[in-house]
Amino acid sequence: MNDIFPNEFLWGGALSACQAEGAYDKEEKTLTIPDVMRFNPTDNRKVTKQPNITWEVIKEAKGDKDTIMYPKRRGINFYETYKDDIALFAEIGFKVFRYSISWARVFPNGNDEKPNEKALEFYDNIIDECLKHQIEPLITISHFDMPIVLIEKYGGWYNRKLIELYKKYCEVLFERYKGKVRYWVTFNEINMSIKAGAKTLGIINEGQSNFEEMLFQGLHHQFVAASSVTEIAHRIDPKNKIGSMVAYFTTYPHTCKPEDTLKAQQDDQMKNDFYLHVMVKGNYPYYALTYFKDNNINLSMTDEDFKIIKSNNADFIGSSYYNSMISSADDVNIELTNGNVHSVYKNPHLPANDWGWQIDPVGLRVTLNHIYNKYEIPIFILENSSGFHDVLNSDGTVDDPYRIDFLKQHIQQMGLAIKDGVNILGYTMWGPIDIISSSKSEMSKRYGFIYVDQDDYGNGSKKRYKKNSFYWYKDIIKTNGRTVFD
Hints:
Elements: E1 10-14, H1 17-20, H2 55-62, H3 78-92, E2 96-100, H4 103-106, H5 117-132, E3 136-140, H6 148-154, H7 161-176, E4 183-185, H8 197-201, H9 211-236, E5 241-247, E6 251-253, H10 258-281, H11 286-294, H12 303-311, E7 316-320, E8 325-327, E9 336-337, E10 344-345, H13 361-375, E11 379-383, H14 401-420, E12 424-430, E13 450-452, E14 464-466, H15 468-478
Protein backbone atom coordinates (compact mmCIF):
# COMPACT_ATOMS: atom_id res chain seq x y z
CA MET A 1 0.00 0.00 0.00
CA ASN A 2 3.06 2.29 0.15
CA ASP A 3 2.98 3.41 -3.48
CA ILE A 4 -0.71 3.28 -4.23
CA PHE A 5 -1.13 6.92 -5.34
CA PRO A 6 0.53 7.92 -8.64
CA ASN A 7 3.47 10.31 -8.38
CA GLU A 8 1.55 12.92 -10.39
CA PHE A 9 -1.57 12.67 -8.19
CA LEU A 10 -3.08 16.11 -7.59
CA TRP A 11 -3.85 16.71 -3.90
CA GLY A 12 -5.61 19.92 -2.94
CA GLY A 13 -8.81 21.67 -2.01
CA ALA A 14 -11.81 23.44 -3.52
CA LEU A 15 -13.79 26.65 -2.90
CA SER A 16 -16.47 28.59 -4.74
CA ALA A 17 -16.42 32.31 -5.40
CA CYS A 18 -19.95 32.84 -4.11
CA GLN A 19 -19.19 31.34 -0.68
CA ALA A 20 -15.70 32.75 -0.12
CA GLU A 21 -15.17 35.95 -2.07
CA GLY A 22 -17.45 38.54 -0.49
CA ALA A 23 -17.14 42.01 -2.10
CA TYR A 24 -20.55 41.36 -3.65
CA ASP A 25 -20.85 44.89 -5.06
CA LYS A 26 -17.20 45.72 -5.80
CA GLU A 27 -15.79 46.54 -9.25
CA GLU A 28 -19.24 46.61 -10.92
CA LYS A 29 -20.25 43.08 -9.93
CA THR A 30 -24.02 42.53 -9.99
CA LEU A 31 -26.10 40.27 -7.77
CA THR A 32 -26.30 36.50 -8.12
CA ILE A 33 -28.73 34.02 -6.56
CA PRO A 34 -26.41 33.35 -3.55
CA ASP A 35 -26.45 37.10 -2.84
CA VAL A 36 -30.23 37.00 -2.27
CA MET A 37 -30.23 33.88 -0.04
CA ARG A 38 -30.97 34.89 3.55
CA PHE A 39 -29.63 33.24 6.69
CA ASN A 40 -32.45 31.96 8.86
CA PRO A 41 -31.15 31.31 12.41
CA THR A 42 -34.39 29.55 13.43
CA ASP A 43 -34.19 27.07 10.56
CA ASN A 44 -33.47 23.73 12.24
CA ARG A 45 -35.02 21.54 9.58
CA LYS A 46 -34.18 17.86 9.61
CA VAL A 47 -34.54 17.49 5.86
CA THR A 48 -32.84 19.44 3.13
CA LYS A 49 -34.96 21.99 1.31
CA GLN A 50 -33.63 24.47 -1.18
CA PRO A 51 -34.48 28.10 -0.37
CA ASN A 52 -37.62 29.25 -2.14
CA ILE A 53 -36.30 31.92 -4.49
CA THR A 54 -39.21 33.94 -5.87
CA TRP A 55 -39.38 37.22 -7.76
CA GLU A 56 -40.55 38.84 -4.52
CA VAL A 57 -37.47 37.50 -2.70
CA ILE A 58 -35.22 38.87 -5.45
CA LYS A 59 -36.95 42.26 -5.44
CA GLU A 60 -36.65 42.57 -1.67
CA ALA A 61 -32.97 41.59 -1.69
CA LYS A 62 -32.10 44.03 -4.47
CA GLY A 63 -33.39 46.87 -2.29
CA ASP A 64 -31.41 45.76 0.76
CA LYS A 65 -27.67 46.41 1.21
CA ASP A 66 -27.44 44.15 4.28
CA THR A 67 -24.50 41.74 4.55
CA ILE A 68 -25.45 40.23 7.93
CA MET A 69 -28.59 38.36 6.94
CA TYR A 70 -27.23 37.84 3.42
CA PRO A 71 -23.97 36.15 4.49
CA LYS A 72 -22.67 35.16 1.05
CA ARG A 73 -22.33 38.86 0.25
CA ARG A 74 -19.45 39.02 2.74
CA GLY A 75 -18.15 35.42 2.47
CA ILE A 76 -14.81 35.20 4.24
CA ASN A 77 -13.45 38.22 2.34
CA PHE A 78 -11.31 36.02 0.09
CA TYR A 79 -11.48 38.94 -2.34
CA GLU A 80 -9.00 40.74 -0.07
CA THR A 81 -7.24 37.84 1.66
CA TYR A 82 -6.58 35.48 -1.27
CA LYS A 83 -2.78 35.95 -1.13
CA ASP A 84 -2.54 34.97 2.52
CA ASP A 85 -5.07 32.15 2.13
CA ILE A 86 -3.34 30.68 -0.92
CA ALA A 87 -0.03 30.90 0.97
CA LEU A 88 -1.61 28.73 3.68
CA PHE A 89 -2.72 26.24 1.01
CA ALA A 90 0.84 26.21 -0.28
CA GLU A 91 2.10 25.55 3.26
CA ILE A 92 -0.15 22.48 3.41
CA GLY A 93 1.43 21.41 0.14
CA PHE A 94 -1.47 21.75 -2.30
CA LYS A 95 -0.72 20.51 -5.80
CA VAL A 96 -4.04 21.86 -7.10
CA PHE A 97 -6.59 24.49 -6.04
CA ARG A 98 -10.08 24.43 -7.47
CA TYR A 99 -11.82 27.79 -7.56
CA SER A 100 -14.71 29.32 -9.49
CA ILE A 101 -15.07 32.53 -11.47
CA SER A 102 -18.11 34.74 -11.00
CA TRP A 103 -19.92 35.30 -14.30
CA ALA A 104 -21.57 38.37 -12.77
CA ARG A 105 -18.17 39.95 -12.17
CA VAL A 106 -16.86 39.30 -15.67
CA PHE A 107 -20.08 40.34 -17.47
CA PRO A 108 -21.98 42.45 -14.90
CA ASN A 109 -24.90 43.20 -17.25
CA GLY A 110 -25.03 39.75 -18.77
CA ASN A 111 -24.83 40.93 -22.36
CA ASP A 112 -21.94 43.43 -22.10
CA GLU A 113 -20.03 43.97 -25.32
CA LYS A 114 -16.71 43.60 -23.50
CA PRO A 115 -15.79 41.85 -20.24
CA ASN A 116 -15.06 43.75 -17.05
CA GLU A 117 -11.27 44.18 -17.10
CA LYS A 118 -11.10 44.83 -13.35
CA ALA A 119 -12.78 41.50 -12.65
CA LEU A 120 -10.42 39.66 -14.96
CA GLU A 121 -7.45 41.30 -13.26
CA PHE A 122 -8.72 39.94 -9.94
CA TYR A 123 -8.85 36.40 -11.32
CA ASP A 124 -5.46 36.96 -13.00
CA ASN A 125 -4.09 37.60 -9.53
CA ILE A 126 -5.61 34.45 -8.02
CA ILE A 127 -4.32 32.25 -10.82
CA ASP A 128 -0.88 33.86 -10.78
CA GLU A 129 -0.70 33.49 -7.02
CA CYS A 130 -1.40 29.77 -7.38
CA LEU A 131 1.25 29.39 -10.06
CA LYS A 132 3.76 31.29 -7.92
CA HIS A 133 3.35 28.56 -5.30
CA GLN A 134 3.48 25.74 -7.91
CA ILE A 135 -0.23 25.06 -7.38
CA GLU A 136 -2.21 23.92 -10.41
CA PRO A 137 -5.33 26.14 -10.82
CA LEU A 138 -8.50 24.22 -11.64
CA ILE A 139 -11.31 26.55 -12.65
CA THR A 140 -15.06 25.99 -12.38
CA ILE A 141 -16.76 28.28 -14.87
CA SER A 142 -20.24 28.22 -13.28
CA HIS A 143 -20.63 27.23 -9.63
CA PHE A 144 -24.16 27.73 -8.24
CA ASP A 145 -23.74 31.46 -8.90
CA MET A 146 -26.49 32.40 -11.37
CA PRO A 147 -26.44 36.13 -12.28
CA ILE A 148 -29.76 37.82 -11.52
CA VAL A 149 -29.50 39.95 -14.69
CA LEU A 150 -29.61 36.80 -16.83
CA ILE A 151 -32.81 35.76 -15.10
CA GLU A 152 -34.42 39.17 -15.45
CA LYS A 153 -33.44 39.69 -19.09
CA TYR A 154 -33.76 36.18 -20.47
CA GLY A 155 -35.50 33.90 -17.97
CA GLY A 156 -32.32 31.99 -17.18
CA TRP A 157 -31.23 28.83 -18.95
CA TYR A 158 -34.76 28.16 -20.18
CA ASN A 159 -33.84 30.64 -22.90
CA ARG A 160 -31.55 29.26 -25.62
CA LYS A 161 -29.90 32.70 -25.81
CA LEU A 162 -27.83 31.80 -22.75
CA ILE A 163 -25.86 29.26 -24.77
CA GLU A 164 -24.29 32.06 -26.83
CA LEU A 165 -23.72 34.29 -23.80
CA TYR A 166 -22.03 31.43 -21.95
CA LYS A 167 -19.85 30.63 -24.97
CA LYS A 168 -18.74 34.26 -25.11
CA TYR A 169 -17.94 34.22 -21.37
CA CYS A 170 -15.96 30.97 -21.67
CA GLU A 171 -14.03 32.07 -24.73
CA VAL A 172 -12.83 35.13 -22.81
CA LEU A 173 -11.56 32.86 -20.02
CA PHE A 174 -9.93 30.31 -22.33
CA GLU A 175 -8.08 33.03 -24.25
CA ARG A 176 -7.09 34.91 -21.10
CA TYR A 177 -5.70 31.91 -19.27
CA LYS A 178 -4.22 29.94 -22.14
CA GLY A 179 -1.11 28.20 -20.87
CA LYS A 180 -1.98 28.99 -17.24
CA VAL A 181 -5.08 26.87 -16.61
CA ARG A 182 -5.25 23.31 -17.92
CA TYR A 183 -8.21 21.90 -16.00
CA TRP A 184 -11.71 23.34 -16.36
CA VAL A 185 -15.18 22.34 -15.15
CA THR A 186 -18.13 23.69 -17.13
CA PHE A 187 -20.94 23.43 -14.54
CA ASN A 188 -20.71 22.52 -10.89
CA GLU A 189 -22.82 19.46 -10.00
CA ILE A 190 -24.91 19.75 -13.15
CA ASN A 191 -27.32 17.05 -11.92
CA MET A 192 -28.48 19.42 -9.18
CA SER A 193 -30.20 21.56 -11.83
CA ILE A 194 -33.44 19.64 -11.34
CA LYS A 195 -33.29 19.99 -7.54
CA ALA A 196 -32.08 23.60 -7.29
CA GLY A 197 -33.42 25.30 -10.39
CA ALA A 198 -32.96 28.88 -9.23
CA LYS A 199 -29.27 28.85 -8.36
CA THR A 200 -28.23 26.43 -11.12
CA LEU A 201 -30.51 27.35 -14.03
CA GLY A 202 -32.01 30.69 -13.04
CA ILE A 203 -35.50 29.29 -13.55
CA ILE A 204 -37.93 30.66 -10.95
CA ASN A 205 -40.76 28.45 -9.72
CA GLU A 206 -43.98 30.45 -9.86
CA GLY A 207 -46.21 27.42 -9.82
CA GLN A 208 -45.97 26.76 -13.57
CA SER A 209 -47.72 23.53 -14.59
CA ASN A 210 -44.74 22.68 -16.81
CA PHE A 211 -42.03 23.65 -14.30
CA GLU A 212 -40.25 20.27 -14.50
CA GLU A 213 -40.26 20.53 -18.28
CA MET A 214 -38.74 24.01 -18.00
CA LEU A 215 -35.95 22.63 -15.82
CA PHE A 216 -35.10 19.86 -18.26
CA GLN A 217 -35.20 22.35 -21.12
CA GLY A 218 -32.73 24.57 -19.27
CA LEU A 219 -30.60 21.52 -18.55
CA HIS A 220 -30.58 20.61 -22.24
CA HIS A 221 -29.32 24.09 -23.06
CA GLN A 222 -26.54 23.59 -20.50
CA PHE A 223 -25.59 20.28 -22.13
CA VAL A 224 -25.31 22.03 -25.50
CA ALA A 225 -23.34 24.87 -23.92
CA ALA A 226 -20.94 22.50 -22.14
CA SER A 227 -20.22 20.61 -25.36
CA SER A 228 -19.89 23.83 -27.35
CA VAL A 229 -17.30 25.32 -25.02
CA THR A 230 -15.41 22.02 -24.87
CA GLU A 231 -14.82 22.44 -28.60
CA ILE A 232 -13.77 26.08 -28.08
CA ALA A 233 -11.38 25.15 -25.28
CA HIS A 234 -9.68 22.43 -27.32
CA ARG A 235 -9.40 24.74 -30.31
CA ILE A 236 -7.82 27.56 -28.29
CA ASP A 237 -5.43 25.24 -26.47
CA PRO A 238 -5.26 21.49 -27.20
CA LYS A 239 -3.75 20.99 -23.75
CA ASN A 240 -7.01 22.07 -22.07
CA LYS A 241 -8.86 19.32 -20.19
CA ILE A 242 -12.60 19.94 -19.80
CA GLY A 243 -14.56 18.08 -17.16
CA SER A 244 -18.18 17.33 -16.57
CA MET A 245 -19.27 17.26 -12.93
CA VAL A 246 -22.01 15.57 -10.95
CA ALA A 247 -22.82 15.20 -7.28
CA TYR A 248 -22.86 11.42 -7.20
CA PHE A 249 -25.22 9.68 -4.80
CA THR A 250 -24.37 5.99 -4.78
CA THR A 251 -27.71 4.27 -4.39
CA TYR A 252 -28.40 1.10 -2.42
CA PRO A 253 -31.68 -0.86 -2.41
CA HIS A 254 -33.37 -0.64 0.99
CA THR A 255 -33.83 -4.41 1.09
CA CYS A 256 -32.93 -7.34 -1.16
CA LYS A 257 -36.46 -7.34 -2.60
CA PRO A 258 -36.27 -7.18 -6.41
CA GLU A 259 -38.64 -4.20 -6.36
CA ASP A 260 -36.20 -2.22 -4.20
CA THR A 261 -33.30 -3.15 -6.47
CA LEU A 262 -35.26 -1.96 -9.49
CA LYS A 263 -36.11 1.33 -7.76
CA ALA A 264 -32.44 1.83 -6.82
CA GLN A 265 -31.46 1.28 -10.46
CA GLN A 266 -34.05 3.78 -11.67
CA ASP A 267 -32.97 6.40 -9.11
CA ASP A 268 -29.32 5.92 -10.06
CA GLN A 269 -30.18 6.39 -13.73
CA MET A 270 -32.12 9.64 -13.44
CA LYS A 271 -30.25 11.20 -10.50
CA ASN A 272 -26.69 10.32 -11.50
CA ASP A 273 -25.94 8.46 -14.71
CA PHE A 274 -28.17 10.40 -17.10
CA TYR A 275 -26.00 13.50 -16.81
CA LEU A 276 -22.70 11.70 -17.25
CA HIS A 277 -24.06 9.67 -20.16
CA VAL A 278 -24.93 12.81 -22.11
CA MET A 279 -21.63 14.60 -21.43
CA VAL A 280 -19.35 11.57 -21.85
CA LYS A 281 -21.12 9.38 -24.39
CA GLY A 282 -22.74 12.23 -26.31
CA ASN A 283 -26.37 11.14 -26.52
CA TYR A 284 -29.52 10.88 -24.43
CA PRO A 285 -29.93 7.42 -22.85
CA TYR A 286 -33.08 5.43 -23.51
CA TYR A 287 -34.34 5.64 -19.91
CA ALA A 288 -34.27 9.47 -19.96
CA LEU A 289 -36.31 9.57 -23.16
CA THR A 290 -38.78 7.14 -21.58
CA TYR A 291 -38.97 9.33 -18.47
CA PHE A 292 -39.75 12.37 -20.62
CA LYS A 293 -42.46 10.47 -22.47
CA ASP A 294 -44.06 9.08 -19.31
CA ASN A 295 -44.10 12.50 -17.65
CA ASN A 296 -45.31 14.49 -20.66
CA ILE A 297 -42.04 16.42 -20.91
CA ASN A 298 -41.59 17.83 -24.40
CA LEU A 299 -38.24 19.46 -25.06
CA SER A 300 -37.08 21.62 -27.91
CA MET A 301 -33.97 19.79 -29.17
CA THR A 302 -32.49 20.19 -32.63
CA ASP A 303 -30.36 17.93 -34.82
CA GLU A 304 -27.58 20.51 -34.50
CA ASP A 305 -27.80 20.23 -30.69
CA PHE A 306 -27.17 16.51 -30.85
CA LYS A 307 -24.38 16.94 -33.37
CA ILE A 308 -22.64 19.31 -30.95
CA ILE A 309 -23.21 17.03 -27.94
CA LYS A 310 -21.98 13.98 -29.84
CA SER A 311 -18.82 15.63 -31.15
CA ASN A 312 -17.48 17.27 -27.98
CA ASN A 313 -17.30 14.93 -25.01
CA ALA A 314 -15.79 15.62 -21.60
CA ASP A 315 -12.11 14.76 -21.06
CA PHE A 316 -12.63 13.70 -17.46
CA ILE A 317 -15.44 13.13 -14.99
CA GLY A 318 -15.57 15.42 -11.98
CA SER A 319 -17.55 14.24 -9.01
CA SER A 320 -18.42 15.44 -5.56
CA TYR A 321 -19.10 12.78 -2.97
CA TYR A 322 -20.69 13.57 0.37
CA ASN A 323 -23.21 10.86 1.11
CA SER A 324 -24.91 7.82 -0.37
CA MET A 325 -28.64 7.15 -0.46
CA ILE A 326 -31.08 4.24 -0.37
CA SER A 327 -34.11 3.54 -2.53
CA SER A 328 -37.27 1.62 -1.82
CA ALA A 329 -40.39 0.74 -3.78
CA ASP A 330 -42.33 1.26 -0.53
CA ASP A 331 -40.98 4.24 1.39
CA VAL A 332 -43.82 4.68 3.86
CA ASN A 333 -41.82 3.79 6.97
CA ILE A 334 -38.41 5.16 5.97
CA GLU A 335 -37.12 8.31 7.64
CA LEU A 336 -35.75 11.23 5.65
CA THR A 337 -32.51 12.90 6.64
CA ASN A 338 -30.35 15.75 5.36
CA GLY A 339 -27.99 15.33 2.43
CA ASN A 340 -26.10 17.33 -0.18
CA VAL A 341 -28.63 19.63 -1.94
CA HIS A 342 -31.54 17.25 -1.33
CA SER A 343 -32.78 14.89 1.38
CA VAL A 344 -32.14 11.16 1.33
CA TYR A 345 -33.64 8.20 3.14
CA LYS A 346 -31.77 7.29 6.30
CA ASN A 347 -29.54 4.24 6.11
CA PRO A 348 -29.60 2.55 9.56
CA HIS A 349 -26.11 1.14 9.01
CA LEU A 350 -24.40 4.54 8.73
CA PRO A 351 -23.42 7.27 11.23
CA ALA A 352 -24.12 10.92 10.47
CA ASN A 353 -22.74 14.38 11.22
CA ASP A 354 -24.60 16.97 13.31
CA TRP A 355 -26.66 18.03 10.29
CA GLY A 356 -27.82 14.50 9.51
CA TRP A 357 -25.53 13.96 6.50
CA GLN A 358 -24.71 10.25 6.56
CA ILE A 359 -21.08 9.15 6.49
CA ASP A 360 -20.27 6.33 4.06
CA PRO A 361 -16.57 6.00 3.16
CA VAL A 362 -16.97 2.61 1.46
CA GLY A 363 -19.61 4.22 -0.74
CA LEU A 364 -16.85 6.35 -2.28
CA ARG A 365 -15.04 3.23 -3.47
CA VAL A 366 -18.33 1.83 -4.78
CA THR A 367 -18.99 5.12 -6.60
CA LEU A 368 -15.57 5.32 -8.21
CA ASN A 369 -15.69 1.75 -9.45
CA HIS A 370 -19.23 2.22 -10.75
CA ILE A 371 -18.36 5.38 -12.69
CA TYR A 372 -15.10 4.07 -14.13
CA ASN A 373 -16.69 0.77 -15.14
CA LYS A 374 -19.34 2.61 -17.16
CA TYR A 375 -17.31 5.42 -18.73
CA GLU A 376 -13.61 4.46 -18.61
CA ILE A 377 -12.25 8.01 -18.58
CA PRO A 378 -10.25 9.63 -15.74
CA ILE A 379 -12.08 10.77 -12.62
CA PHE A 380 -11.31 13.85 -10.53
CA ILE A 381 -12.77 13.91 -7.01
CA LEU A 382 -13.66 17.58 -6.83
CA GLU A 383 -15.45 17.71 -3.49
CA ASN A 384 -15.43 15.46 -0.44
CA SER A 385 -15.74 16.41 3.21
CA SER A 386 -18.25 16.89 5.99
CA GLY A 387 -19.41 19.84 8.04
CA PHE A 388 -18.65 19.90 11.76
CA HIS A 389 -18.94 22.26 14.72
CA ASP A 390 -15.44 23.46 15.65
CA VAL A 391 -14.26 25.22 18.82
CA LEU A 392 -11.40 27.71 18.75
CA ASN A 393 -9.31 27.16 21.89
CA SER A 394 -7.86 30.07 23.86
CA ASP A 395 -4.37 29.25 22.55
CA GLY A 396 -5.52 29.55 18.92
CA THR A 397 -5.73 25.81 18.24
CA VAL A 398 -8.64 23.71 17.03
CA ASP A 399 -8.84 20.03 17.92
CA ASP A 400 -10.73 18.28 15.11
CA PRO A 401 -10.08 14.51 15.26
CA TYR A 402 -13.55 13.93 13.76
CA ARG A 403 -12.49 15.69 10.55
CA ILE A 404 -9.25 13.74 10.36
CA ASP A 405 -11.14 10.49 10.89
CA PHE A 406 -13.71 11.33 8.19
CA LEU A 407 -11.11 12.30 5.59
CA LYS A 408 -8.76 9.44 6.47
CA GLN A 409 -11.49 6.87 5.90
CA HIS A 410 -12.51 8.39 2.58
CA ILE A 411 -8.95 8.78 1.31
CA GLN A 412 -8.28 5.15 2.25
CA GLN A 413 -11.26 4.06 0.15
CA MET A 414 -10.07 6.28 -2.71
CA GLY A 415 -6.71 4.55 -2.49
CA LEU A 416 -8.36 1.14 -2.58
CA ALA A 417 -10.31 2.23 -5.68
CA ILE A 418 -7.01 3.15 -7.35
CA LYS A 419 -5.73 -0.30 -6.36
CA ASP A 420 -8.87 -1.73 -7.98
CA GLY A 421 -7.69 -0.09 -11.21
CA VAL A 422 -9.71 3.15 -11.24
CA ASN A 423 -7.91 6.06 -12.92
CA ILE A 424 -8.17 9.01 -10.51
CA LEU A 425 -6.46 12.29 -11.40
CA GLY A 426 -6.70 14.03 -8.06
CA TYR A 427 -8.60 14.93 -4.92
CA THR A 428 -9.74 18.43 -3.94
CA MET A 429 -11.42 18.22 -0.56
CA TRP A 430 -14.24 20.69 -0.09
CA GLY A 431 -13.69 23.86 1.87
CA PRO A 432 -10.02 23.76 2.99
CA ILE A 433 -10.73 27.06 4.73
CA ASP A 434 -14.04 27.71 6.50
CA ILE A 435 -16.62 29.40 4.26
CA ILE A 436 -20.32 30.25 4.19
CA SER A 437 -22.50 27.13 3.84
CA SER A 438 -24.14 26.76 0.42
CA SER A 439 -27.46 25.41 1.63
CA LYS A 440 -28.16 27.26 4.89
CA SER A 441 -25.85 30.29 4.53
CA GLU A 442 -24.36 29.66 7.96
CA MET A 443 -20.75 29.90 9.12
CA SER A 444 -21.00 27.44 12.00
CA LYS A 445 -21.02 24.46 9.63
CA ARG A 446 -17.28 24.23 9.10
CA TYR A 447 -15.30 22.12 6.64
CA GLY A 448 -11.82 23.61 6.66
CA PHE A 449 -8.30 22.83 7.78
CA ILE A 450 -8.13 26.55 8.48
CA TYR A 451 -10.46 28.15 11.03
CA VAL A 452 -11.87 31.59 10.19
CA ASP A 453 -12.82 33.61 13.27
CA GLN A 454 -16.26 34.67 12.08
CA ASP A 455 -19.67 33.64 13.36
CA ASP A 456 -23.01 33.27 11.58
CA TYR A 457 -23.60 37.04 11.80
CA GLY A 458 -20.18 38.13 10.57
CA ASN A 459 -18.80 38.91 14.04
CA GLY A 460 -15.18 38.08 14.82
CA SER A 461 -11.62 39.06 14.00
CA LYS A 462 -11.67 37.18 10.63
CA LYS A 463 -8.22 35.92 11.59
CA ARG A 464 -7.12 32.52 10.25
CA TYR A 465 -6.01 29.67 12.55
CA LYS A 466 -4.55 26.29 11.64
CA LYS A 467 -6.56 23.33 12.90
CA ASN A 468 -4.90 20.04 13.81
CA SER A 469 -6.19 18.62 10.53
CA PHE A 470 -4.04 21.23 8.72
CA TYR A 471 -0.89 19.38 9.80
CA TRP A 472 -2.44 15.96 9.19
CA TYR A 473 -3.34 16.77 5.56
CA LYS A 474 0.08 18.34 5.07
CA ASP A 475 1.62 15.00 6.01
CA ILE A 476 -0.76 13.12 3.69
CA ILE A 477 0.35 15.24 0.75
CA LYS A 478 4.04 15.14 1.72
CA THR A 479 3.98 11.32 1.75
CA ASN A 480 1.69 11.11 -1.33
CA GLY A 481 -0.96 9.35 0.74
CA ARG A 482 1.24 6.65 2.22
CA THR A 483 0.56 7.60 5.85
CA VAL A 484 -3.21 7.33 5.41
CA PHE A 485 -2.83 3.55 5.71
CA ASP A 486 -0.68 3.68 8.86
